[in-house]
């Protein structure tokens, strides 16, 4: 059985083919798509965070809005770049959004990926300490966030406060119980997957990862997941961790589906460099008629290892069409693979 949701980057542009022309369109359509996904029986609505881009950025107003408009669906990010984040403020925002949603937030965070501008986190007021890298800075921010979400008091109260304080040291408010266990780390390498397990975070693995050995993408990703689960057991955590993978999956059932994605049926893994030093492997897209698609997906080792599948959607094609794509997978593919 799989938890099946969608992952949206929230692109917008004023190009002629786009049904998402503005930032307002992207945000309001994201809410509508989450509502539609819940009505279809999907399990999650997840959103990518990119700064300095015509995509979704500040996630918590959006997550709170979706939380207020839905009742059941998980609401998450995939992922928030921790190089840009003030963990104190983030803990407050996350706690508030989670309370509005009734405890349905699933927050994916990470070290981040190459961005639209050079060292964009510097414009947000952050820079690594002497002798540290930006990745070190992101992991430090993440570790602070995890401590804050545990809910322990740490701040010395003012002896003459404006309002009465509870006894003892104070914590960041509002606190949402259980959110600490719903933090995911977006890992691009096996070693960072192990680090996530050691810190008690769920694993979020995308459609690309560091190329570590040259095997097909889904095989490398399955190896990453197994390394994560092994490290989780060794760390002594008592709860069962969750693992998600992302895929571009299009079940072709209409002429329009074939027009948009028919050429993706020949997709293969791609290898390239996401920066000067990092060779990455990018997973293929899946696009075929349902019977053929079912046979292809049955061979994907990483999907088999994961408990959560996030379907990347081309959001500029509009809410109705994306709901159709999601329904195609839920109806024509998932039952045949025992995902439902």
UniProtKB/TrEMBL annotation:
**Keyword field contains Oxidoreductase:** yes
Q: Name one Pfam family in it.
A: Bac_luciferase
State any single GO MF term. Answer: oxidoreductase activity, acting on paired donors, with incorporation or reduction of molecular oxygen
Specify the superkingdom.
Bacteria
Q: Where is the Luciferase-like domain?
A: 1-257
Cellular component GO terms, alphabetical:
cytosol
List the SUPFAM superfamilies.
Bacterial luciferase-like (SSF51679)
Q: What are the alphabetically sorted keywords of the record?
A: Monooxygenase, Oxidoreductase
Protein name as it appears in the record: Alkane 1-monooxygenase
């Amino acid at each position: 059985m799989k938890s099946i949701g969608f992952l949206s980057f929230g692109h917008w542009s004023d190009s002629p083919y786009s049904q998402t022309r503005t930032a307002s369109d992207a945000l309001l359509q994201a809410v509508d798509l989450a509502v539609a996904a819940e009505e279809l029986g999907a399990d999650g609505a997840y959103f990518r965070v990119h700064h300095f881009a015509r995509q979704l950025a500040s996630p918590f107003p959006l997550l709170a809005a979706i939380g207020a408009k839905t009742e059941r669906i998980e609401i998450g990010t995939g992922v928030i770049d921790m190089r840009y984040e003030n963990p104190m403020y983030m803990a407050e925002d996350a706690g508030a959004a989670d309370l509005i949603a009734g405890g349905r937030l699933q927050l994916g965070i990470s070290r981040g990926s190459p961005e639209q501008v050079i060292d964009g986190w510097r414009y947000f007021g952050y820079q690594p300490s002497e002798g540290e890298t930006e990745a070190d800075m992101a992991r430090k921010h993440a570790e602070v966030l995890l401590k804050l979400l545990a809910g322990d008091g740490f701040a010395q109260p003012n002896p003459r406060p404006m309002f009465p304080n509870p006894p003892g040291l104070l914590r960041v408010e509002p606190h949402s119980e259980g959110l600490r266990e719903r933090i995911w780390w977006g890992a691009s390498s096996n070693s960072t997957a192990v680090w996530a397990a050691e810190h008690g975070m769920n694993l979020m693995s995308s459609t690309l990862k560091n190329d570590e050995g040259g095997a097909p993408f889904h095989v490398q990703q399955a190896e990453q997941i197994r390394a994560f689960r092994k490290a989780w057991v060794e760390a002594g955590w008592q709860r069962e961790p969750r693992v998600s993978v992302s895929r571009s999956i299009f079940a072709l059932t209409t002429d329009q589906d074939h027009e948009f994605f028919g050429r993706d049926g020949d997709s293969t893994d791609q290898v390239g460099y996401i920066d000067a030093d990092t060779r990455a492997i990018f997973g293929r897209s899946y696009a075929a008629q349902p019977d053929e698609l079912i046979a292809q997906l049955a061979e994907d080792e990483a999907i088999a290892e994961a408990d959560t599948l996030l379907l990347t959607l081309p959001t500029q094609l509009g809410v109705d069409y994306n709901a159709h794509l999601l329904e195609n997978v839920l109806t024509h593919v998932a039952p045949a693979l025992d995902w439902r």
